[in-house]
Structures are given as C-alpha cells and as structure tokens.
Amino acid sequence: MSKIGIFVGTVYGNAQHVAEEVNTMLNGHGMGSEVFTDPTLNDFKQVSSMLFISSTTGQGDIPPNLEFFVQDLRDQFPLMEQKPFAVAGLGDSSYGETYCGAGRQIFELLTELQGKPISELLQIDACETLEPEVEVVAWAEKLLPELR
Asked: Of 26, 39, 17, nearest to 140 (Cα)?
C-alpha cells in the first residue's frame, strides 16, 4: 500500500494541528498516511507521495524542527523521480516579502529534487483565516486522486 508522508514545519503547533486534521481526513478516505514532525531522509524516501505543511518563522525562515531536515535534503540531494508532492504554507501577509517564505523555499527545493508538483503552493494568510485547517483539509481532499 502506498503511504502519504505529511511533513510538518511548526513553531507554536498550529501547522501540526493542521497536519493532524489532514491526516484524519486521509485516513477517513482509507489512505495510509503519517505525520512527521522530526523527519529523516529515510522517512522522505519511504513515502510514495508527500504533503508539506509549514509555518514561517523569523524573516521567511523554515521552522527549527525542519531546519536540519531541509539542510540534509539540500546537501544530499535525493532525487524524487517525479514523486507527487504539494506544499501548504502558513504565514502572515503583514510580513511583506517574507510571507510564507518557508513554504516557498520547500516548494522550490522539492521542484529542484525533481518532484512532481500536484498543486501550486497553497498560501494561508493568518490575517484572513482563523481556521487554516478548514482550508488546508479542503485543498488536500481535492488532491486525493494525485496522492494515491
């Protein structure tokens, strides 16, 4: 059975909550998935498709729990061979150019690793959305055929 990896970048737990809601939806559709908050390259290689859900910290930076993992991806450059992926970035548009910076960095990296984007980067603005899990779950549900 294929497994969907949900990789989470979180500082205060909001992105993790969103990822857990997506995981519940996927399991409800009979799809095997797992949430990774401290992923390894082995986790990355073992899944058949992936969703990244990440908040942004600092000046458009990747959250600390994903920093070393993303650096490992950059250093070891494991080619994805068209493995399907999608990225949801959580951010605050009042930060201007750094808005959803982590999501943009992750999306670009996965594209460089020759992953197959199944959606444009989803950007969720904290200034407009009080319940990001509602939007992200609906978005992920539309991607089900591509994630299988």
From this structure: 26
Scanning the structure block, which residue is given the tokens 């750094």? 98
Model pTM above 0.90? yes
10 Å CB burial of residue 38 (0-12, 13-18, 19+) is: exposed
Output the CA torsion sign for 106, 108, 110, 112.
negative
pLDDT tens by residue, 2-47: 799 999 999 999 999 999 999 999 999 999 999 999 999 999 999 9
Report whether 28 contacts 12 (CB < 8 A): no
Helices 14-28 and 132-142: angle between axes, nearest 10 degrees: 40
Phi, psi of 5 (to 5 degrees): -95, 130
Read off the pLDDT band of 67 (50, 70, 90): very high
| Cα 99 from Cα 125, distance rounded (Å) | 8
